[in-house]
């Protein structure tokens, strides 16, 4: 069971404002409920694995600057700091 | 019993590029936000490209700290929101699916104390924040991403330290070790940072973050121990928490739990496959590793008969040991070591001075040879060294220009000695009866020659002229 | 001028001098002008397209080297970066974002003288199955505009199907290329994971998604694959495909090939029309010399739950970067505190994206990871082992792309779990990294049914051969729009 408090906690964690609580809780609840089917998959002993490459396939260490002034193409910052809101504490 | 553990972050500033992109690893020379690209800015659609040399260097560090080095390493995401983190997650390493970070358990000796290493991991540095405006309401956070993506090696120790002094000694040893490996320059501002965790009498562990320098680290640890002991003595509970170091007030302060049990939702970084480091790569790295400090020290003592104190200084500073390695010969080794650890040291005690110095190993070799052959006296060599550092001119040129050459021409010296003898008849008589006092006469000859007389030759000629053996 | 030709036919015509790129592209833009109001396949149209085509004609005339596309008009799903162009992911969050670099696939196509005629509509951040979650309005199915075109690459599929372009690039995370391809009666391809570079593809679930072409014929897809596949230093997850030529030998046929019919993908949720189409496809394959046999992939039952758990987790992380600080829309930080600014800025996400973010925060969280996220990863692992074992006995696998017929707009949008189930036949290929293709196969009351083939990793060439063979067994009606 997913409680309203848990939705609240997760929404703070993900920085997603949850406005109409009830509808959210219901829909999210039903989606997560659906995932409960995983419990019957019998995969307890499975390992986690992934694609693998050799260290020799990795990028060589060289300095190549980006072509152009990137900061000026983002949000009108012209060679200056990016502005962020004040941090609490 | 006090238990202190450390988390040290070391920037791999000797690399050419960042951990996941080709922007420069050492960001310090750039103007604000000019060392960035779509990858380190986390732009939509960008992907990380892992730096091969960074993995190698990190593995070397692990080897130097006697850590296990796994055959396969993996990267994970640590998810949290912060303006200095362009993706709002950090790509780092963890050991939740077996040993997958670049170094496993290891250890290093700090004097007689063995400090265990928990793990070594490779991760990216975030950007830098500064604050604009003082009024709390209107304050803006300013972000410079030049540093975002700089390769970091994190070294985590077990809480094996018992006091702040051990911590300080360890940090010195570690800095020297990392400089010696050629992976980083610990003297660069911000290149090495550390967090600590402190607990007393086996109690709750308190983490201390936001410590700006190693100097502050010692202070912070000391303060925290005192704080905890004070609480303990008054039977007040020590809360397990994270505190930050307030540099202004020189105290640790509780970080408001706005962090709210931060849940990082760690999972494997899907854009970077597991990296296989075969045993032949490990072997090659081992063989390429620069000689360790302790090995150098042993070698200097046993092979060149250099006194342990001198060997200590020489081996632990890469700048000096590099100089020594290139400048010395079988015959002048001791002299080179001596010059470095007595005269040179005072002249190159800062990063700036070392960068500005024009001294080459050829200079050093020639200087040592000249002192040994008597061409230049020890006191003159001091002046010569000064001049070389400043101008970089050839030793012979400097000797000529400053007239530093020893007077070693026998006839010239004999003449001067004859003069002195005639002027100091009392001293001569004394010397005949008490040979120890001959040094006064040697001194007089030195005065007359402005310190350039070859001391050994002077002594011999004096004795001969006076008629003592 | 006939726009109803395949990519290879177009290239042939231009090379022979029968048509000019400029004329064709101009006619294409006219077509877009006249029908896209109904379809809304495009979010933006390239007004320089005709001029660019003109330049290519010049190159052809002067005998200069021309790229293999010869000015072919292509649409690009709006989650791939084209330098100096808006790339919105059909989201208000990125409505003003102008990409400062080209995706690798875009660079490659530019080099081959393709022309990007516009950015195609999609479900917001690729999360969806119907393109109804686009923040800028849904797209319609060209076969019946009351129906959804599928998703999330709905605009791509609709534009190819309705002759608004010759080919398209979409992205497939759980069926997002194959599903709309099936609904719109075009070919939709998801390659082996790592075959096509994702550099410049705005991430949704990076461990399983791939860019894939949507085309009118299987040969066209092979042609596109030749141009855009291969190792890319900008993407550490790309694999070396040894410069394969996917067109070479594409009509070799499927004589003697063993094809497994996936039992779990023809379960109770399959509609009668789809079931009978599948039976028909199987007998056609047998007629071409293949040996078809039922096979069971037990983990398919859990694949949808695993898929949504994993993708929500990855999406929650991949979309964290959208905090409006470095790029985004106009919303000043003055006077705000960090947490409240970020939460407010992210209100621009649509409701489905928000739901996925909440789930993506929940299922890997410290207290829940063991129950949900880790289990899902283990299901992925087991499913991968199962399918590997299966491919020891079979060369290919077959199943309908979607178990049901295309449905009307608005029909499933309020029931997320019901919508999940539409993916049941497609997520397996993504979770296991296997290549899969949807081939237009049948019609039912004017609504398309696509047939899906799956091959083992790096068997893309074989897959295309089989798909081509299947494609040749049917003749389908022309799109009515």
Description:
The complex is a heterotrimer of chains A (89), B (469) and C (481). Chain A has 89 residues and is mainly alpha-helical. Chain A has two helices and two strands. In chain B, strand 10 and strand 11 form a beta hairpin. Chain B is elongated. The longest helix of chain B is centred in the middle third of the chain and has 20 residues. Chain B is built from 16 helices and 15 strands. Chain B folds into three domains: 281 residues, no CATH class; 112 residues, no CATH class; 57 residues, Arc Repressor Mutant, subunit A (Orthogonal Bundle). Chain C has a domain of 284 residues: Alpha-Beta Complex (Amidase signature (AS) enzymes). Helix content of chain C is 36%, strand content 13%. The mean pLDDT of chain C is 96. The chains are: A mainly alpha (89), B alpha+beta (469), C alpha/beta (481). Chains A and C meet through helix 1, helix 2 and strand 2 of A and helix 9, helix 10, helix 11, helix 12 and helix 13 of C. Strand 1 of chain A pairs parallel with strand 15 of chain B, so a sheet runs across the interface.
How would you concisely characterize the structure shown here?
The complex is a heterotrimer of chains A (89), B (469) and C (481). Chain B is α+β, with helices and mostly antiparallel strands and 469 residues long. Chain B is built from 16 helices and 15 strands.
Label this structure with key terms.
A: 89 residues; mainly alpha; 2 helices; 28% helix; B: 469 residues; alpha+beta; 3 domains; eight-stranded mixed β-sheet; three-stranded antiparallel β-sheet; elongated
């Amino acid at each position: 069971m997913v409680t309203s408090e848990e939705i609240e906690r997760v929404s703070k964690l993900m920085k997603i404002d949850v406005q109409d609580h009830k509808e959210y809780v219901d829909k999210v609840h039903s989606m997560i409920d659906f995932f409960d089917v995983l419990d019957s998959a019998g995969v307890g002993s499975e390992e986690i694995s992934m694609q693998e490459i050799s260290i020799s396939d990795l990028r060589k260490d060289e300095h190549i600057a980006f072509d152009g002034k990137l900061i000026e193409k983002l949000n009108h910052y012209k060679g200056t700091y990016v502005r962020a809101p004040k941090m609490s504490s | 019993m006090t238990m202190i553990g450390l988390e040290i972050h070391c920037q791999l500033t000797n690399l050419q590029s960042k951990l996941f992109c080709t922007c420069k690893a050492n960001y310090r020379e750039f103007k604000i936000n000019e060392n960035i690209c779509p990858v380190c800015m986390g732009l939509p659609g960008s992907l990380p490209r892992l730096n091969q040399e960074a993995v190698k260097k990190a593995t070397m560090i692990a080897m130097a700290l006697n850590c296990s080095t796994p055959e396969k390493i993996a990267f994970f995401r640590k998810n949290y929101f912060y303006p200095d983190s362009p993706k709002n997650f950090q790509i780092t390493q963890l050991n939740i699916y077996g040993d997958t970070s670049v170094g496993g358990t290891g250890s290093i000796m700090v004097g007689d104390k063995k400090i265990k290493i928990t793990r070594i991991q490779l991760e990216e540095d975030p950007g830098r924040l500064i604050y604009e405006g003082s009024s709390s309401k209107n304050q803006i956070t300013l972000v410079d991403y030049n540093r975002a993506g700089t390769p970091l090696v994190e070294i985590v120790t077990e809480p094996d330290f018992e006091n702040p002094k051990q911590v300080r000694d360890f940090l010195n040893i570690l800095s020297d070790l990392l400089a010696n490996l050629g992976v980083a320059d610990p003297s660069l501002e911000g290149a090495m940072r550390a967090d600590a965790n402190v607990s007393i009498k086996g109690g709750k562990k308190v983490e201390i973050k936001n410590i700006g320098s190693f100097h502050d680290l010692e202070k912070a640890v000391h303060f925290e121990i005192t704080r905890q002991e004070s609480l303990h003595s008054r039977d007040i509970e020590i809360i397990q928490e994270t505190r930050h170091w307030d540099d202004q007030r020189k105290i640790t302060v509780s970080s408001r739990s706005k962090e709210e049990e931060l849940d990082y939702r760690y999972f494997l970084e899907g854009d970077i496959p597991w990296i296989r480091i075969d045993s032949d790569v490990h072997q090659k790295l081992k063989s390429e590793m620069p000689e360790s400090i302790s090995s150098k020290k042993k070698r200097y003592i046993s092979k060149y008969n250099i006194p342990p104190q001198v060997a200590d200084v020489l081996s632990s500073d890469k700048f000096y040991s590099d100089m020594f390695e290139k400048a010395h010969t079988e015959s002048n080794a001791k002299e080179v070591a001596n010059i470095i650890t007595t005269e040179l040291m005072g002249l190159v005690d800062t990063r700036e001075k070392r960068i500005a110095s024009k001294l080459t190993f050829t200079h050093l070799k020639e200087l040592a040879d000249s002192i040994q052959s008597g061409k230049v006296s020890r006191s003159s060599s001091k002046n010569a060294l000064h001049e070389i550092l400043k101008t970089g001119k050839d030793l012979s040129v400097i000797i000529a220009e400053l007239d530093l050459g020893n007077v070693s021409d026998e006839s010239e010296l004999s003449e001067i000695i004859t003069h002195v003898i005639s002027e100091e008849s009392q001293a001569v008589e004394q010397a005949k009866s008490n040979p120890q006092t001959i040094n006064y006469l040697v001194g007089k000859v030195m005065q007359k020659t402005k310190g350039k007389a070859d001391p050994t030759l002077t002594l011999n000629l004096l004795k001969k002229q006076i008629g003592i053996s | 001028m006939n726009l109803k030709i395949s990519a290879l036919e177009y290239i042939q015509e231009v090379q022979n001098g029968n048509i000019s790129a400029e004329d064709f592209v101009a006619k294409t833009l006219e077509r877009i002008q006249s029908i896209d109001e109904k379809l809304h396949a495009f979010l933006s149209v390239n007004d320089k397209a005709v001029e660019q085509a003109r330049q290519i004609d010049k190159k052809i005339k002067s005998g200069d080297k021309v790229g293999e596309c010869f000015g072919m008009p292509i649409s690009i799903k709006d989650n791939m970066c084209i330098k100096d162009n808006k790339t919105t992911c059909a989201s208000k969050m990125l409505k003003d974002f102008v990409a400062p670099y080209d995706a690798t696939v875009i660079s490659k196509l530019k080099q081959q003288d393709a022309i990007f005629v516009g950015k195609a509509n999609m479900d917001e951040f690729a999360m969806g199955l119907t393109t109804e979650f686009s923040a800028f309005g849904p797209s319609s199915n060209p076969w019946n505009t009351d129906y959804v075109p599928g998703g999330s690459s709905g605009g791509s599929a609709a534009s190819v199907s309705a002759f608004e372009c010759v080919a398209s690039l979409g992205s497939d995370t759980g069926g997002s290329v194959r599903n709309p391809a099936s609904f719109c009666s075009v070919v939709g391809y998801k390659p082996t994971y790592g075959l096509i570079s994702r550099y410049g593809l705005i991430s949704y679930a990076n461990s399983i998604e791939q860019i894939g072409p949507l085309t009118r014929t299987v040969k066209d897809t092979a042609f596109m694959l030749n141009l855009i596949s291969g190792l890319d230093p900008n993407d550490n997850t790309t694999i070396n495909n040894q410069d394969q030529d996917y067109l070479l030998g594409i009509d070799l046929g499927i004589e003697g090939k063993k094809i497994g019919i996936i039992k779990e993908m023809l379960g109770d949720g399959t509609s009668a029309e789809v079931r009978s189409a599948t039976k028909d496809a199987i007998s056609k394959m047998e007629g071409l010399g293949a040996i078809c046999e039922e096979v069971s992939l037990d983990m398919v039952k859990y694949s949808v739950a695993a898929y949504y758990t994993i993708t929500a987790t990855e999406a929650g992380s991949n979309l964290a970067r959208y905090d409006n600080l470095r790029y985004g829309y106009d919303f000043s930080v003055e006077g705000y505190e960090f947490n409240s600014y970020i939460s407010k800025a992210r209100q621009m996400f649509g409701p489905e994206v928000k739901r996925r973010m909440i789930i993506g925060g929940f299922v890997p969280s410290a207290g829940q990871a063991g129950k949900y996220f880790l289990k899902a990863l283990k299901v992925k692992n087991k499913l991968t082992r199962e399918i590997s074992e299966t491919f020891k006995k079979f060369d290919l696998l077959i199943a309908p792309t979607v178990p049901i017929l295309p449905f009307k707009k608005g029909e499933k949008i309020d029931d997320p779990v019901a919508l999940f189930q539409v993916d049941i036949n497609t997520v397996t290929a993504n979770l296991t990294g296997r290549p899969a293709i949807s081939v237009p196969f049948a019609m039912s009351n004017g609504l398309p049914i696509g047939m899906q083939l799956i091959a083992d990793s790096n068997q893309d060439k074989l897959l295309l051969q089989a798909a081509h063979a299947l494609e040749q067994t049917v003749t389908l009606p022309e799109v009515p729009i």
